[in-house]
Amino acid sequence: MIAITRNALAALFVVSSLVNCQSSKPTEAEALSLDFSDAENRWKNAGLVNYDFESTSLCFCSTDFVGPLRVSVRNGAVTAIINTRTGVAAPLRYRYPMDSVFAFVRLEQTRRPTNLTVTYDAVLGYPRRIEYGTLATDDGGVITIENLRAALP
After folding, report:
1. The predicted structure's pLDDT at residue 15
2. What is the CA radius of gyration of the chain?
3. pLDDT tens digits, residue range 101-136?
4. Which of 59, 103, 122, 128 has the smallest set of CB atoms within 10 Å of its CB?
5. Which helix (H) or strand (E) holds 107?
6. Helical (H) or strand (E) element with 79
């Protein structure tokens, strides 16, 4: 019979917990495999109404729109947009809360489904990268959303 001390048992529990947490964390491949409905449900279930994220766009757009921009959303509405390179505020019309981003993806799915690629966050479901339309003909672009975190109201 093997005797296990309390310290050894505690260490075994901690290692087991870490392994289980890491194995249950979604992989990048799982993030890619999320479909729109799964992603949108994850976002809705997260229940975030106060959050911040960083966004950049690759398009034939105003340089103010391209970013990188830090977007603040409070109570589901964009309240501030700051260019992270210059520290200058951008007009609020240049970014939308995540529900509107999902609405944009839904619209693109109907308009031009063959020219749409979306990568969703594996945990919260929000679109991390949206490639839409044809950039070469000034009829599309790429939007990236990173560093999304919950915020206080």
Report:
1. 33
2. 20
3. 999 999 999 888 889 999 999 999 999 999 998 877
4. 103
5. helix 98-111
6. strand 77-83
Q: Give the Cα separation of 70 and 90 in Å (integer).
A: 10
Beta bridge partners of 80: 72
| Cα–Cα dist 14/10, whole Å | 6
Q: Tens digit of pLDDT for each residue in 41-90?
A: 999 999 999 999 999 988 776 666 667 999 999 999 999 999 998 999 98
* H or E stretch at 108: helix 98-111
> In sequence order, what DSSP letters do the residues of 9-52 get, joined into one string?
HHHHHHHHHHHHHHHHSPPHHHHHH--HHHHHHHHHHHT--SEE
